[in-house]
Amino acid sequence: xxxxxxxxxxxxxxxxxxxxxxxxxxxxxxxxxxxxxxxxxxxxxxxxxxxxxxxxxxxxxxxxxxxxxxxxxxxxxxxxxxxxxxxxxxxxxxxxxxxxxxxxxxxxxxxxxxxxxxxxxxxxxxxxxxxxxxxxxxxxxxxxxxxxxxxxxxxxxxxxxxxxxxxxxxxxxxxxxxxxxxxxxxxxxxxxxxxxxxxxxxxxxxxxxxxxx
Length: 213
Ligand code: 5RP
Prior knowledge:
Layout lengths: L4 E6 L4 H11 L5 E4 L1 H7 L1 H10 L4 E8 L3 H11 L3 E5 L4 H8 L4 E6 L5 H9 L4 E5 L2 H5 L6 H12 L3 E5 L17 E4 L1 H4 L4 H16 L2
Parallel strand pairs: 1-2, 1-8, 2-3, 3-4, 4-5, 5-6, 6-7, 7-8
Helix pairs in contact: 3-4, 4-5
């Protein structure tokens, strides 16, 4: 089975704080995400700055784009992003327009998406989805559980590379142990810890423990 990658989500309000954290964990993680919050606060400056620091890492702009796919994709790609995200409720033309301008497009799954919709994403050639528990759902008492496994498995069976995210803690990873998860995306589970480097390494070690080195 494939070994999942580890993606850090930089959801800082200020670029300087994001830079302080990425300096601690940049060499440990596989993928660096300029989170939605940081994109909104600091825009393309954040992407280009982190691209300069990490020329060889995969960088994702978590734009959760809903419209103007071509322009948004062009802008983030020019700043140095390899991948970007669109929200699942974006129209197919928005996704297709974005797809033309960026190496990889990820569909962020929030709210009332359906597997029929997901099939249309496959049909236009998309291969990545991000299975998400929203911050707000988690704050309202939601947790990771068996209900998520079934949906993630169906998406994998449809041919998607599935990333998993949303308030992930170390203890959540084993829930997915029998599935070829593409990527675990972790924000606060690393950046809010007293020692982000130790926290990032602990996620890496747990992935290696469960899925093998
Ligand atoms: C918020 C996001 C976050 O970047 C993602 O969920 C990871 O952050 P955390 O681990 O802190 O929940 O996409 O919309």
